[in-house]
Specification:
The chain contains 9 helices and 9 strands. The chain is an alpha/beta fold.
């Protein structure tokens, strides 16, 4: 059977679907992923992406952190693509029960999706590390250099999980969501970042589907594997 038809059949027959998304879901909107040919790992910076986006860099060299952050993670003007919009349609049908995402770009929410578990946080929430004052993402990205709190002068920190930090409470909710899923669709992630990738091993449902441009460590565990651009896949689904 054609892989797209097989995936469509799985979706049609399932009543409890969970979608797990990585950076590859947003590349069709114009954002860079991490490990593809044109991803952040292949760009020339003073430090590796894990260092640039680490808690150590934020607190010790905030100027370097914010240069990288502003250059690469600004999704304010980015729009959802076919994958995000298809998931909204699937949710409206009552089939998709939730989305677990490693992405911090907010595109699932922009597409109108509900029950989005952002296990690595979001660029749309920012807080002063001294007084905890909330700031909109526009203020952070449009500020010169390191954004500072207007009340106390403290550095503003994006509410994202940096390398070296613990995951949010959304991770526990993600575990619960996957444990109940009948169909788990994993898309746009190489499944190498832990502990997020370990969520896949919690799935005990009927069908595990992995859609990614390149192979992943979990391909052998899946009922269906599609190595293709996500837009090519989701454009063909009903």
């Amino acid at each position: 059977m054609d892989k797209i038809k097989e995936l469509q059949k799985m979706i049609d027959e399932a009543s409890n679907i969970v979608f797990f998304s990585g950076a590859g879901v947003s590349t069709d909107s114009g954002l860079k992923d991490f490990r593809s040919q044109y991803g952040l790992y292949n760009m020339k910076y003073k430090y590796a992406p894990e260092e640039m986006l680490s808690s150590y860099m934020f607190y010790k060299e905030p100027e370097e952190f914010y240069k990288f952050y502003k250059d690469n993670l600004n999704s304010l003007d980015i729009k959802p693509n076919i994958t995000h919009l298809y998931l909204k349609k699937l949710q409206d049908k009552g089939k998709l029960k939730g989305i677990i995402t490693q992405n911090i770009d907010g595109l699932h929410t922009k597409a109108g999706c509900k029950n989005v578990l952002e296990i690595h946080g979001t660029i749309y929430k920012n807080y002063c590390i001294k007084c905890n004052e909330f700031y909109e993402s526009e203020y952070v990205f449009k500020s010169e250099g390191v954004p500072k709190c207007l009340k106390c002068g403290g550095i503003i920190k994006p509410d994202v999980v940096l390398y070296g930090e613990a995951l949010t409470d959304a991770f526990i909710k993600a575990e619960e969501l996957i444990a109940k899923a009948e169909l788990l669709i994993v898309a746009g992630t190489s499944l190498v970042v832990q502990p997020a990738a370990s969520l896949v091993s919690l799935f005990k449902g009927k069908n595990l589907v992995i859609i990614n441009n390149s192979p992943t460590l979990y391909d052998n565990n899946a009922n269906l594997v599609i190595h293709d651009n996500l837009s090519n896949v989701f454009n063909k689904l009903k």
